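Example record

One chain of 376 residues, shown exactly as stored in the release files.
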Amino acid sequence: MSMTSSHQPDPNGVRLQTAPAIREQFAAMRATGKRAKDAAEALGLSEGAAIAAHAGEHEHPLKAVPLQGSWLQLLQSLEACGPLMALTRNEGVVHEKTGVYMNISATGPVGLALSEDIDLRLFFAQWHAGFAVTEAAADPARPPQRSLQFYNAHGRAVHKVFVREATDLAVLDAVVQRFAQPSAGYVFGAAPPAEVPRPDAEIDAAGLRAGWAAMQDTHEFFGLTRKFGVERQQSFRLVEGQFAWRLARESVTAVLQQAAAGGLPIMVFVGSGGCIQIHTGPVANIKPLDTPGGAQWINVLDPGFNLHLRTDMVASVWLVEKPTADGVVTSVEAFDHAGELMAMFFGARKPGQAELQGWRDLAAGLPRQQELAHAA
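Predicted C-alpha cells for this chain:
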C-alpha cells in the first residue's frame, strides 16, 4: 500500500516526474517566502528530494552539489573554516548555534562534537545524503546563502551548516571539492509508520520504577526504556507522581522567560533523529511571535544562539527527575501531537556537579497540569 497521502510528502516527488519541473515550482514557492522544507512539502516532496533535484547544471537560484562521506571526516574538516552556524531541527523546533566545529570524534556510528558553542550528539546511521547548497538572494546586492545539508533516508534534514560572515570560504570550497560526488544520485524512501507503544498493562511498571530509582547516570535512561520495552512518555506515565509530573503547555515559555529574568544558565536539547544539538548557557532575549498562518512561536534571539519553538504544536510537557550519582537531575520535556520529543530543558551542569538549586526551584514552580486519573 502506498504511503503517499495529502499529509505526507512523496519522498522523491513521482507526481512531478522531472527535475526541471521540480526546480521551476520550488523556485516559485521560495519566491513567496516559504522555508525550503515548507516549499518542498507544498509540492508533495521531501526536502531532501527537492534539494537533490537541484544537482547538475541549471539556471535556477538554488544549486546543490551532492556530497559523500565519511561524514565524520567531513565535519572534522570544518574546523579550519572558522565560525559556522549549526542548525538542527524537528517538526516544531529550530535550534541554531554559531561557533567552530571542534573536538569531533566517533565510536562506531555515534559521534560527538564537543566545544563551548558547537555541542552535538551525532547518529551517523541516520545520515543518508549530503549536499553543498548555494542559493542566490532575492536582492542581487546580497551574497548567496551557502550551506551544507544532510538528510536521512526519508529526505528529512538531520543537520545543516550555514556560512557566517567570518567563515573562511576558500577552506569551505576545498572541503566541498574534497567530498563532492556529483554522481551520488540520492533517492529517498517513505518513512515507516510510527511504532505504536505496547499497552501499559504489558509493561513491568514495578520493575521500571525500581530500575529508575537505581539509576546512577542520566544516560542509563535509554537502556532502561529498551529493557522494559516502554516508550518515553509512556515511561513518564508509569512513574507519574514519583519521578514525573505533568506540566501545563505554557511551561515551555515560562522556562525560557524565567531563566532569562534570573540570568540562570540552562541547557536546551533539540533532536532531529540524526543529531541532538545542545545549547549551554544563559538566555536573554525571549520573544513570542504569531505568524499570519496561525503558527505561534516562542523565540530566543541571542548572539550565537537562536531557538524557534512552535508553542501551538506543544501537546504535552513533563517535569522529569532522574537519580544520578551527583544527585537528582531535573528536565522539562515538551512533546508534539504526534508524540515526538520537541525539546528538553535542563539546568546547566557538568558531570560530577550537582544540579543548580536555581534550576530546581524554577522547575518546581512551573504550572502543573491537573494529573489525569489512571484507569483502574
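Notes: Residues 108 and 124 are 9 Å apart (CA to CA).
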